[in-house]
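User: tokens in, sequence out, please.
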């Protein structure tokens, strides 16, 4: 069941998303060689508590962190711990906040110091695929239009697209219908309507599409152990425009995604 949100609910989700955007900006600034992913998790817990929210991932299906921290070949759902970040690594930080009962979800992949040109390009293309997906997430389009927009950018560069995990509705719960794959599949293809709030989240691999889950039963890694990138925004769909609710202050706005459509 796809939940259409009221204006009041969207206002609440927006507040949660704005807090999350600021938390991600704070975490990004902390990232440098020598810190651990547990350091990032501690910061996230403190920041979210200071803002009056609750880390939405903590305890979700038993997940032990406030963040998912996924380094290099780790795609998503990495557990924060004593892994030290080194120059040239990338780390995906995925976070959700519950604030006054409203949920937000957003992720960024951040270079640690200087990364290779190859990895830099992967991050740029993944970010661009997210923006293209957001650009297609307008009222009247269908889920497949978003999937196709993401996939087109990624496939132009011959990167792998993670298939078993996808974007989703969000806002009153952490994960709601509909699912939003990053490729055009044969699953449900509902029309996007005003009042829908969705998380769009391309997961893109330098190598092949395949992924494994590690023995910790959480961490998803690339099958070929090559680097993966992940960016995610929560967006609200209105009749005449789409709003990126988790846009960060540090981020350059991408006009194409945020202009009104006639
Ligand atoms: Mg997320
Ligand atoms: Mg998500």
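Assistant: Sequence out:
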């Amino acid at each position: 069941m796809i939940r259409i949100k009221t204006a009041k609910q969207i206002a609440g989700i927006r507040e949660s998303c704005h807090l999350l955007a600021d938390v991600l900006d704070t975490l990004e600034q902390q990232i440098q060689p020598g810190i651990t992913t547990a350091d990032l998790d501690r910061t996230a817990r403190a920041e979210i508590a200071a803002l009056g929210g609750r880390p939405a991932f903590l305890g979700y299906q038993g997940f032990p962190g406030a963040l998912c921290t996924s380094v290099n070949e780790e795609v998503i759902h990495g557990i924060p711990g004593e892994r030290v970040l080194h120059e040239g690594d990338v780390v995906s930080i995925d976070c959700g906040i519950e604030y006054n009962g409203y949920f937000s979800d957003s992720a960024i992949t951040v270079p640690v110091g200087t990364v290779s040109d190859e990895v830099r390009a992967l991050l740029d293309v993944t970010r661009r695929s997210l923006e293209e997906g957001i650009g297609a997430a307008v009222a009247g389009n269908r889920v497949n239009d978003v999937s196709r927009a993401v996939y087109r950018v990624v496939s132009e560069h011959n990167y792998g697209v993670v298939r078993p995990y996808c974007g989703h509705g969000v806002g009153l719960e952490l994960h709601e219908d509909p699912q939003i794959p990053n490729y055009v599949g044969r699953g449900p293809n509902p029309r996007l309507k005003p009042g829908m709030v969705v998380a769009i989240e391309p997961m893109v691999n330098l190598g092949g599409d395949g992924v494994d889950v590690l023995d910790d039963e959480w961490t998803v890694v690339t099958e070929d152990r090559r680097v993966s990138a992940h960016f995610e925004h929560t967006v609200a769909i209105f009749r005449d425009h789409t709003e990126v609710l988790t846009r960060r202050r540090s981020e350059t706005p991408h006009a194409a995604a945020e202009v009104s459509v006639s």
